[in-house]
Amino acid sequence: MNGVFITLEGPDGSGKSTIIGLIGEYLEKEGIEFIKTREPGGTAIGEEIRDIILDNKNTNMSYQTEALLYAASRGQHIHEKILPGLKAGKVVLCDRFILSSLAYQGVGRELGIKKVKAINDFAIGDVYPDLTLFFHIDPKKTLERKFGNGDADRLENLGNDFHEKVYNGYMDLLKIYPENIEIIDANGSIEEVLEQAIDKINKAIRQRG
Ligand code: TYD
């Protein structure tokens, strides 16, 4: 397996989704084979799971169910898309991965980082990212961005306390699992953020050899 597995992480509204599109354009231009995908989702089964998780009408979903559904979507994603892409030598770019579950379900939902990690380890085996880009941004800024457009999903609608807990969770996780994580300052312009991301990605690709 000689592909490069790269994940993008950060709070809601940190700009990852815009940047992942631009990274894709850059890789295309450079002639580097890649797959661009996201979580929850990324496969037909995963997208159906995503609809269940994010549906605003599912107010009665237990936190455990929520965590298991994210892990189930991830397990399918690894099996059907990520692992085959890596085996074919491609760069796999994924918008969110296990760190999101540890921050949102482990800390935000207070299920505990270790418990959430255990169900995810079961789901994904040993396929961990070669590089995680963590988009760091002032939490107040992210919420303004996200809620400005009025179509927030069930998780985004959880309010400031929840999102503050998630932010603090991410800050702790960066200390607990620093391996392969690079912090991107996402407060600047799109060009500045993209430049940092591409610099880290090129290093990871060069390391693969
Ligand atoms: P999405 O619209 O993809 O948000 P974003 O563009 O910010 O990534 O919705 C995904 C939501 O699901 C987001 O609020 C984060 C949350 N989430 C978890 O709670 N746990 C997870 O494991 C993942 C992958 C996402």
Task: Provide an overview of this structure.
- The protein is an alpha/beta fold.
- The protein has one domain: Rossmann fold (3-Layer(aba) Sandwich).
- 57% of the residues lie in helices and 13% in strands.
- It is built from eight helices and five strands.
- The chain has helices spanning 16-30, 44-54, 63-87, 98-108, 113-124, 139-147, 160-176, 190-208, and strands spanning 4-9, 34-38, 91-95, 131-136, 181-185.
- A five-stranded parallel beta sheet has the order 2-3-1-4-5, with helices on both faces.
- The longest helix is centred in the middle third of the chain and has 25 residues, at 63-87.
- The two termini are 12 Å apart.
- The model has no long low-confidence stretch (mean pLDDT 94).
- Residues 12, 17, 39-40, 70, 95-96, 100-101, 104-105, 153, 155-156 line the site of thymidine-5'-diphosphate (TYD).
